[in-house]
Design goal:
The protein is mainly α and about 425 residues long. It has two domains: about 230 residues, no CATH class; about 200 residues, no CATH class. The chain is about 85% helix and about 0% strand. The protein is built from 18 helices and no strands. Helix 13 runs parallel beside helix 16. The protein is globular. It starts with 8 loop residues before the first helix and ends with a helix. The mean pLDDT is about 90.
Length: about 425
């Protein structure tokens, strides 16, 4: 639990490393799902699982704010020793998660119809994908509720629990994949059933990990949980995070769509290089989450000294991680590209733009870490506003650079958006620190 103990490097690593390890398991599950259906000897099942997973992930992503908002509020409550409010925050998040999941379940028909109008597929792939999504969607309440549980555990600095949930879900999913698909011959519905069971099992395990919160009567105090003032503040913070995330997503989507104008080879190269950025995000998230928990707890106690120390120590580790990734990409980036594609033109194109990926972890470090600090402090209006400025900088840079520099200009604009996020949030940081205490 967050308290007033010293903010040490050991404490930051204890929070961050389980998150890094947890994130490292995420790509494994997708690879196993693909590999299992690949044993069926047909292309359609692979495409169906891929499309179905992407559509559902896009729907669930809308509720990603729940993880961040829960972490910030819970870290502050637990930091000031208010276990009653900490328990109520968890319940509040679970109620929103369940409601959001049920909304997706009830709206699945028009949602899936719209998804296939935006991204049409062959009749066979669409039929299989609908079968997959029709089963998996019923675990939406569990998965979205897990966002709240994950946020609460991070706030309590119990990230080993987050890692344990991920290991349980992925391990169970893999085992059931093999049994249902290869053993029982259930095909694509078997993959969906495996994920459905794993996600509800993950929720049950997560609730058990949070059992100390449920030992406090406040977790079922309806008046506290549904208090209008607290709900308005919760909605405001989560709304800010959602708007910020939508703008960030708009940058990524526009980057991909603009890159497609330069031909299939360049589009493929950009897609490969974005995997380096995904690796960076998985690693940096651990230290950003540590910042969320520690600075949130310090703010809850009104301890400016602990707040500053938490921001500095977690950022030091974030910077070291960014530097290590830059060196890794410089030395091994070419090999990674060769592993990811055998097409000589794509390999050559990706290598030509690899320097941007070497620079990305360094240029983006401040943005990642300051995001964590501002989330922990629930100063999300600043995050929203600075993201809007950064988005404007990105658009201006793209309009200025892409016509003359092509894909190089696009990458420069993309990295400029990271720098802009770091600079603008850094500009707001002194005021944030002065507000503590």
């Amino acid at each position: 639990m967050t308290d007033a103990r010293a903010v040490t490097h050991r404490r930051v690593l204890a929070v961050a490393l389980p998150i890094v390890l947890s994130n490292a398991t995420v790509p494994i599950l997708g690879a196993v799902d693909t590999g299992v259906v690949g044993q069926l000897g047909e292309a359609a099942p692979i495409g169906a699982v891929g499309i179905g997973a992407i559509v559902l992930a896009a729907l669930y992503w809308i509720f990603g704010f729940l993880r961040m908002g829960t972490t910030g509020f819970a870290a502050q409550a637990l930091g000031r020793g208010d276990m009653e409010e900490g328990a109520a925050i968890l319940t509040r998040g679970l109620v929103i998660g369940m409601a959001g999941g049920l909304a997706i379940v009830m709206a699945q028909v028009p949602l899936f119809w719209g998804a296939f109008r935006v991204s049409p597929a062959s009749a066979e792939v669409e039929a299989l994908a609908r079968s997959y999504m029709g089963i998996r969607v019923w675990s939406a309440p569990a998965l979205i509720s897990l966002y709240a549980i994950t946020g609460w555990l991070i706030a309590a600095e119990r990230t080993r629990g987050v890692f344990a949930i991920q290991i349980l879900m992925n391990g169970l999913n893999v085992a059931l994949d093999l049994w249902f698909v290869l053993g029982l011959g259930w095909g694509v519905p078997g993959v969906a059933a495996a994920t459905f069971i794993a996600e509800w099992s993950g929720l049950a395990f997560g609730l058990w990990l949070c059992r100390d919160a449920f030992a406090t009567p406040a977790w079922r105090d309806r008046a506290r949980i549904l208090d209008p003032a607290r709900l308005r503040r919760f909605a405001q913070v989560n709304g800010d995070i959602l708007l910020r995330s939508l703008m960030l997503q708009a940058i990524f989507v526009s980057f991909l769509l603009t890159g497609a104008r330069f031909g299939d080879v360049t589009l493929a190269a950009n897609q490969i290089l974005l995997q380096f950025l995904e690796i960076t995000a998985y690693a940096m998230d651990g230290f950003a989450f540590a910042a969320e928990a520690i600075v949130g707890g310090a703010l809850g106690r009104g301890r400016r000294d602990l707040f500053r120390r938490g921001a500095v120590v977690s950022s030091v580790w974030g910077a070291l991680t960014g530097g290590a990734l830059a060196v890794l990409f410089l030395l091994a980036g070419g090999w990674v590209i060769d592993v990811m594609t055998t097409a000589p033109p794509v390999r050559s194109e990706a290598r030509g733009f690899l320097p941007y990926m070497v620079a990305a972890p360094i240029l983006g470090c401040a943005a990642w870490m300051l995001d964590g600090i501002f989330i922990g402090a629930t100063r999300t209006a600043d995050m929203r506003n600075m993201m809007a400025l950064s988005f404007a900088v990105y658009v201006a840079a793209a309009l200025a650079l892409v016509p003359t520099l092509g894909n190089h200009g696009l990458w420069l604009a993309f990295l400029t958006s990271f720098v802009a996020r770091g600079v603008t949030l850094g500009w707001r940081y002194p005021a944030l620190e002065r507000s503590v205490g």
